[in-house]
Amino acid sequence: MALTRLFRSLPARGRLRAVVETGGVVSAGLVVWGAVAGLGFPAHPYVQVTALAVGAGLFPLRRRFPVAVLLALAALTGAAPCVGPVTAATAFAVARRTVRARRRGRLLVAAAAVVVVCAAVSAPWSGPGPVEYGLALGLILTPAAVLVPGLVGTSYGQQRRLVQALRERGDAAERARRSADSEARTHERSRIAAEMHDLVGHRLSLISLHAGGLELALERADPELREEAVLVRRTTRDAMRELRQAVGVLGPLGRDTGPEALTDATGTRTDIESLVAESRDGGIAVRLDWTGPDLDARTARVRRAVHRVVRESLTNVHRYASAAHVTVTVVHDDETVRVTVRNGAPPAPPASAGSVGTGRGLTGLRERVELLGGTFDAAPLPSGGFQVNAVVPAEPGDAPAPAPARAHTVGDGTGHDAGTPPERRTAQVLTLALGLAALSVLMVLGTAFVYATAPHKNAGPSPLPRVGMTYGDVAATGVSDNKAVRAAATGHEPPRPAGTAGCVYPFNGATEARPGGLIVARYCFDAAQRLIAIDRFTVPSVRDAAPWETP
Length: 551
Description:
Blueprint: H1 2-9, H2 12-38, H3 45-58, H4 66-79, H5 84-97, H6 101-126, H7 131-221, H8 223-250, H9 269-281, E1 285-291, H10 300-320, E2 325-332, E3 336-343, H11 360-371, E4 375-380, E5 386-393, H12 422-453, H13 471-476, H14 483-489, E6 502-504, E7 511-514, E8 517-525, E9 531-540
Helix pairs in contact: 2-3, 2-5, 2-12, 3-4, 4-5, 4-6, 5-7, 5-12, 6-7, 7-8, 7-12, 8-11, 9-10, 10-11
């Protein structure tokens, strides 16, 4: 069940990789089993296949339970050498993921000890035989299945962690540089805003003051010119308002300038409801849809950005679509705050439709949202309305701008680096595959050497025939009838024992005792095919004379 849940929790690519890895190590184990079984060494080959199947089931759990899986596979390797490739891959993965050197060293030593002990204990019934030969088999399997893969995994892990640390330092330096650049831009913007407020604002204030005085002076003297003075004063007032808005955009994100300075309550649900209520009182049909918790726990930068988006959007609706229906939607979750202000097409063009805005308000909103790492979009709708959509991170990072894409990133330790180039990843896979193949060959050679040198049940000289053995047992010792020896014994053999049903005259029992004499053996059996007598006697032999010996 745990294996099934783990497999289902993986993404599609992770499932495929797990299947390929498991299939690869099990294939290597089958090759080891086939090579050793082909030589006829294991006493119980199918028991070893069962152990390999258990190891294949444990292998996918190596990342979740590294210690238990490695020790269990080490025990199986001691009893069944074909599990060695699975243990080698597990030792490599566990050593690469284990950061603490002492813990990694103790784990590898413990796994090596388990291999040796289990090989020695299981040797009499499933191994080469004697305990000392099982101990030798464990000592041969330990380097190939545990120590060498563990050392290679340690090297890979240290290299990966070193590269990770270097890249983190590089990322930290990049964030510090961007933060410094952003701070410099903020100071420069603040300086420009201060100069605009001090110089231009002062001049516009003087113009408005003189226009007001001129309006009072011309109220009775020349009513027609008074209207011109009123127009100058109103234009100056509008210029002052737009200047305050520009100063608010150029000012630092930590504070807002002008008479409408933002407070700590800005951007909360109560504040947004107040903005909506003010627009509704001004004759706008506006509705608020709020999803998620309030924004009072979020940082001031996030709340100010939300307030700015809603206020600027409603202001534009007042100017260009005061008769349209408006919907303000705020969706707040653990990661983002999405603000959408959408208005339908107005029934009739507004009175100020001829005056097209500069778009600087939306530009300022876009810049404010993007500085927080969010996204901003404002565009007309096909139905004739307009929509403003802003997505602000709920917890913006220290960097004011999103980090640039990096070509190479270190993986999460699942066995592969996430951003490693394909050619480098292919080289790593081929290297590990060749290393596993080499270790498998060493396991086969070491296992075959121990099994070949261990004593077997059939070792030693064959037993000699003795009275009472059956005909089959005697024949198994190499005794078989020979027609030439039978012919030589005919007429020269002693009488057969009583109860004899038949005799065998083997060739290997004939020996020349003296010139002209040949000692032959006779094995007599009764009707029950039991050996009842073994006789040896001498018969005359004939030898042809050589040509040069002929008289």
